[in-house]
Amino acid sequence: MKTLFGTKASPSTVHAALLVLRVGVSAIMLTHGWPKVTKIMAGDMAFGDPIGIGSTPSLILATLAEFLGSVLLILGFQTRAAALVLVINMLVITVFAHGSDPFGKKEMPLLYALIYLTIFFVGPGKYSVDGQASRTWPG
């Protein structure tokens, strides 16, 4: 029982957990990004304009963040940059798109932002393109 509830984690366990976190959250975010891709491909550019740059640029930026950013995180390629873009996207959703809404509407994008912020600070782990390229991970 001591091992199960201990505070030490082996490096390989940490790297595996980072893989699960990156792939898991990105797979879920793809369910938001892919409909935006199909919307653009269908020529439907109707979208909100939360930061005042126009609905088409807003849709394109949200799509790039949610779809391309998620693909990059799954691969673990340019992980920190992709995570930062997704943090910004989630904060825009929280503050601007749902700014006057009750907390329940803000809760999910805030949760995503915290996960992406964690990935930004911790990095992708060794089970990633970035990790294999740099080989600076311990263990």
Order of helices and strands: HHHHH
The biggest beta sheet is recorded as:
none
Mean pLDDT: 93
Strand content: under 5%
Oligomeric state: single chain
Number of helices: 5
Instruction: Please give the number of β-strands.
Output: 0
* Radius of gyration over C-alpha positions, nearest whole angstrom: 17 Å
- Spans of 5+ residues with little confidence (pLDDT < 50)? none
Helical residues, percent: 55-70%
Structural class: mainly alpha
Alpha carbon gap, first and last residue? 24 Å
- How would you sum up the global shape? globular
Report on this structure:
The chain is mainly alpha-helical and 139 residues long. The chain is 70% helix and 0% strand. The protein is built from 5 helices and no strands. Helix 1 runs antiparallel to helix 2, helix 2 packs antiparallel against helix 3 and helix 3 packs antiparallel against helix 4. It is globular. The mean pLDDT is 93.
